[in-house]
Amino acid sequence: MQYPRSGVALLVAAAVLWGTGGVLGTALGRSADLPSTAVAAYRLGLGGLMLIAVVAATGGVLPRGRPVWSRIAVIGTLAAVFQGAYFAATVTAGVAAATLVTIGSVPVVVVLVESLTARRRPAGAVVRTVVVGVAGLGLLVGSPADGDLRSTVVGGALAVVSGSAFATMTLVGRRHAAQGDDTVVTGWSFVLGGALLAVAATATDRTALLPVVSVTSILLVLSFALVPTAVAYSAYFRGLRTAAASTAAVVALLEPLTGTVLAVILLDERLTAVGAVGAVLLLVSVVDAGVTHARTNAGGARA
To answer: What's the CA angle centered on 89, arms 221 and 98, to 5 degrees?
Structure first.
């Protein structure tokens, strides 16, 4: 696979492709009559198999060495927790609240961990992009639906777990970016993550993974596994080689923005004036993160 050289460009591409996941996943669940956990299991499992097939077709080799297999195990487990906890949060607290807390917590967790491990305060530019991005996300997603206190607390906790898992996956991917080929690692990680989700889906219902097979459901599951999974995550982990984890976490906020745009175009949903302001703030945050990344690289080159 050929990728653009810019890490930020890869991260933007990944986030935009992730944004198609909401429409594809919802359509797949309805067409194949699958629960959300089963949809996530098919997404990761088939997406991972696609990447492994690409590696085999290009003469690639199996992962070698304990560090690479350890990274696969960690990323696969985190991917399963991220997907599983998010879908559980949507059921408990609603899609709006789950999306806001999950995606919004990612850059916050990343910046906190980076600051604690480096034992220094986060740079002002990083804090600025995170604050503007999360504020924009809040305006775009809007207020969650009213619910009882228990559902709100449980759903919020699950969303925080989901966001923390994705943030940890980002930090692990950034820290060990040179360990193994990205396509190989991502492929095997997602096969593992898909298997874990399959076990979770069938724990209470043995028929959870049995879809209603049709031409539409087949096309949807293949598109879901390919576009927002295999291609998007390959670009994301490749982009982490040259971009900071905090930059990646901010750029990931483009996912709900893309999903909103697609929902307006394809599902005839309406974007409120407040949501439009949130969309603008999200774009400002992502552009700010890209400019900060470019300045940092330029400063490093001069040094």
So the answer is: 90
**Count helices and strands in the chain by DSSP H and E runs:** 13, 0
- What letter does residue 64 receive in the DSSP assignment? -
Q: CB of 285 within 8 A of CB of 125?
A: no
The alpha helices in 142-253, defined as continuous H runs, are: 149-175, 182-202, 215-225, 232-239, 245-251
Nearby residues of 167 by Cβ (< 8 Å), 6 or more positions away: 105, 106, 107, 109, 110, 113, 249
**pLDDT, tens digit, 9 for 90 and up, residues 60-77:** 778 888 888 889 999 999
Tokens of 106: 């990612």
Residues 242, 296, 279, 251, Cα dihedral to 10°: 20
Record the tokens describing residue 117, joined without a space.
């491990």
Q: Is residue 210 helix, strand or coil?
A: coil
Evaluated on CA atoms 85, 88, 93, 97, the torsion sign reads positive
Q: Which two tokens stand for residue 9?
A: 């460009």
pTM greater than 0.70 (yes/no): yes
Give the per-residue pLDDT at 52.
94
| Cα–Cα distances in angstroms (integers) from residue 157 to residues 5, 102, 114, 132, 163, in the given order | 38, 10, 22, 23, 10
Separation between Cα atoms, residue 186 and residue 49, nearest integer Å: 10
Residue among 37, 33, 53, 77 at smallest CA distance from 217:
33
Residues 45/198, Cβ–Cβ less than 8 Å: yes
Please report, for residues 74, 78, 176, 214, the alpha-carbon distance to residue 69 in angstroms, rounded to integers and kept in the order given.
9, 14, 12, 36
- Tens of pLDDT along 189-222? 999 999 999 999 999 888 999 999 999 999 999 9
